[in-house]
Every structure is written in structure tokens, then in C-alpha cells.
Amino acid sequence: MKKLLLALFAGFFISVSGQEIIQTRKIWNQAPHNAFTDLVRYKGSFYCVFRESAKHVPAGRSENGQIRILKSRKGDKWESIALLKNEQFDLRDPKISVTPDNRLMVLMGGSDYTTGKLGARVAHVSFSNDGLRFSDPQPTIVDEAVRTDADWIWRVTWFKGTGYGVLYQSNQPDGEFLARVVSTRDGIHYQLVSNLDLKGKPNESTIRFEGDRMYVVVRREAKENNNGMFGFSDPPYQTWKWIDLGIRLGGPEFAFVAPGKIALGTRVYHTAEVSGHKTGVLFMNTDGKSEK
């Protein structure tokens, strides 16, 4: 059984170079598959969201993923406050954020496995005004000019009243993925901002800001050409500069820990230098160079 682990920390990070792990504590293991966590602080409490299911890929609707939401004041004791589900869609990779009007928003992928094989993908969203009651997941609405039947908005970051995320679309005739920056004012409707000119099946992406500059870390998963990419753009976010990070990423998340300094959390894949798949936090500068 896969166990859900949350690293509770104050000022420490685990790096791939091998720093000491201060503590890990299991906070939930009530399903055979517990995975894809996200965490936010809201009204004095921590909220942790993740997917529950029988397995990573469902064989049909009976195994569709559901989104569990846990709450804790201090991070030591956790209580379940909500379980989000949809009869048609397997809900995946929830990302939780605080909207400009001080609501919690849970954004999640929605994959249709009704036939036993992957069909349409439609991102869904749920809201809470108080951190206790959450609305039923509803489909997001992407501008019809760029909408497809394979849309996934993996995470939204709010900045000056607008939410920004990367919409990736995996149904291209050549087997490639398209990645686009989209924006929203309400968490439901999304408009195109710019296209990301990336090859290598770009997908899971996190956007953050320093000043008005937008930064993004992008996972790629082609058999070759699958190093993570780090990009930045200035308003109006139409032109991008890219840095190859030199390592393969999974589920990338990052935060600014000081001006020009980034802590990047990711799955670290097995290499000659790193044995087995691990979770790591890497420190780097905004020029893409890692700090030892």
C-alpha cells in the first residue's frame, strides 16, 4: 500500500546531495492509492489535498479517483473535512490555492475512463468560502479558440487578481503536447495568454512571480529530450526565454526563498548519480544554476 507522507518542516529542505531528513510523519493511508499532494495555509490552518483511488490508472468508473481534503491547525493532527468526487471523471493531481476574494480553490484534472481507456480530459474546480464546505467539482471552461478534448490545467498561481496556469494538451497528431499559458479571473473561465514553444511533451508546470516577471518550471516526458525547462517572461508574457535544467522533473513545485533564489521541489528520477526515484528539493538561482 502506498503511504501518504508529508514533510513538516521549519526552514529545512531535502536536497539530492543528501542532507539529513529531520522528520517524516504519515498523515493518511485510508485508500490503496494515496498520491499527488498539495498544501496551503488558510485562515490559520493547513489544508492538504490529494487523490484517493484503488490504483494509479483506473480500469473504469468504479475506480475513479476522488480528492481528499485534510485540515490541521499545527500540522500534527489532521482531520478529513471533504471528499470531492465525480461520477464520470477520474479526479487527479489536485492543486489548492487561495483566490483574491479569500476563498479556497481546488483545481484538479478530470480524466474520463468510462470505456476502460483514457477518453476526454477536462479540468475541474471546487470552491470553499469557509474551509469547511466545498462545492461539487465543476468543469473549467477554456476559450473555444484553443479548447480541445484533452485539456489539463495543472496548477493556478494568483497574481494581482488574476490566476495564471499552464494548459497542456496531449492529443496532437504528431504525438507531441502543446503547452499554453492561460489566465482566469474566476477560476472557471480561462483565456489564452501565450503559447510555450517547447518540444518533448511539456506537461506539469508551476508558475511563480518575482516582481512582475513570470517564471515557470515545466516537466517534459518524451523518451528523449525530457529534461525539465525553466522559463521567464516579462509583461505581457508573450516572449519567453528558456534554460534547460539538465535533469528530468516530476510534479514540479517551486518558491522564492530569497531574491533571485529558488527552492525547487520535484520527483528525482533514477540516474547514475541518484539511486532509485526519490523526492528532492534543489536550490538554484534564477539563471538556472544550482547551488551546492
Could you explain how this protein is built, in words?
With 292 residues, this protein is mainly beta. 0% of the residues lie in helices and 50% in strands. The strands form 6 sheets. A 5-stranded mixed sheet has the order 11-15-14-13-12, with no helix packed on it. The protein has a 4-stranded antiparallel sheet with strand order 3-4-5-6, with no helix packed on it. 34% of the residues are buried.
Task: Outline the fold blueprint.
Blueprint: E1 4-6, E2 25-28, E3 33-42, E4 45-53, E5 66-72, E6 79-84, E7 89-98, E8 104-112, E9 124-128, E10 138-139, E11 141-142, E12 151-159, E13 162-169, E14 178-184, E15 189-196, E16 202-210, E17 213-220, E18 229-233, E19 241-244, E20 253-258, E21 261-268, E22 278-285
Parallel strand pairs: 11-15
Antiparallel strand pairs: 1-2, 3-4, 4-5, 5-6, 7-8, 8-9, 9-10, 12-13, 13-14, 14-15, 16-17, 17-18, 18-19, 20-21, 21-22
Number of contiguous helices: 0
Described by its quaternary structure, the protein is: single chain
Strand count: 22
Main sheet summary? 5 strands, mixed
The end-to-end distance, rounded to whole angstroms, is: 35 Å
Helix content: under 10%
Report the structural category.
mainly beta
Q: How many whole angstroms does the radius of gyration measure?
A: 18 Å
Order of the strands making up the biggest sheet = 11-15-14-13-12
Query: Shape from CA axes?
Result: globular
User: Spans of 5+ residues with little confidence (pLDDT < 50)?
Assistant: 1-17
Q: Which H/E pattern describes the elements?
A: EEEEEEEEEEEEEEEEEEEEEE
Overall mean confidence score, pLDDT: 90
Strand content: over 45%
